[in-house]
Amino acid sequence: MFEATPITTASKCDLYRELASQARSLLHGETNLVANAANFSALVFHALPDISWCGFYFAEGDGLVVGPFQGRPACVRIARGRGVCGAAAQLRQTQLVPDVAAFPGHIYCDGAARSEIVVPLVRADGTLLGVWDVDSHSLARFEEEDRLGMEALCAQFMHVQA
Ligand code: SME
Fold this sequence. Notes:
By secondary structure, this protein is an alpha+beta fold. It has a single domain (about 10-160), classed as GAF domain (Beta-Lactamase, 2-Layer Sandwich), CATH 3.30.450.40. It has four helices and six strands. It has helices spanning about 10-25, 35-45, 85-90, 145-160; strands at about 55-60, 65-70, 75-80, 95, 115-120, 130-135. It has a six-stranded antiparallel sheet, with helices on both faces. α1 (about 10-25) runs antiparallel to α2 and α1 (about 10-25) packs parallel to α4 (about 145-160). Bound molecules: methionine sulfoxide. Methionine sulfoxide binds near residues 74, 83 and 133. Methionine sulfoxide binds near residues 53, 83, 106, 109 and 133.
């Protein structure tokens, strides 16, 4: 049984470093996508303060379909290029959205959502696995350090999926 070490460090940078190390241990030796995605979501949801939802959308056909997540039930399918998730998938670039109301086409799965970060998950062969989406009820919850931290975490996740 995996026991997460309580995270007590103050700075975001340290927190993400510790979380990446916990993710490495948690995913080590397992390649099942659903198992790893479920555990990864649970790890992040319980470790990071002030997040309302985190989880995966996987590429399917032209669009995205929800995968393992933590939080309230979410929109199941997102059409190509739609919302913050669709933009991250299409542009293959992390989308850091301090105010979702100001993002044209943002999809409200939760009316209380205020800020969001979405990281594209690209396989070593260049194909898109999906995106990693994290939401908060606070405005501007995510900043540059979160982008770097989330991208490092996702790199850890993609490493075991390769
Ligand atoms: N807000 C996202 C949709 C997914 S939910 O936040 C879980 C978007 O605009 O793509």
